[in-house]
Design goal:
Length: 135
Amino acid sequence: MKTLKSTLILMILGTLTVALADVSVDAQIAAIANAAPEERVALVNKFKERLATMNGDERASAIAQMRSNTSSNTQAMRNQAQTKQRSRRGQMGQNEEMQKMQHMNQQQTGSQAMKQGTIGSSQSSGIPTKFMGHK
């Protein structure tokens, strides 16, 4: 009877330990995912130390969790980078369009001024010019 109780208590404690270890592995993986790049190295090293103390099944499960989390984070980062790149391309296209429009407006304004005779007409209008030493 005593051995049965002892065995039962050990089994319960073992189950609780495994359950707490899983939560802690999840917490470690979440901390790694949310950490700044400088902190990430230290957290990954702690995670590796923890992996070394686990049995084969626990280790495989923890590694699989880490891989799935890392791959989803990597995909999210790729998507974010692609969105930024598309935004930059769009802005560059808008800037080019604005420059083309400005250039066209300047050409139109210049040609209209030439047609109306406002450019270079200072001598014909009797306005004296003192440019480059002319008197």
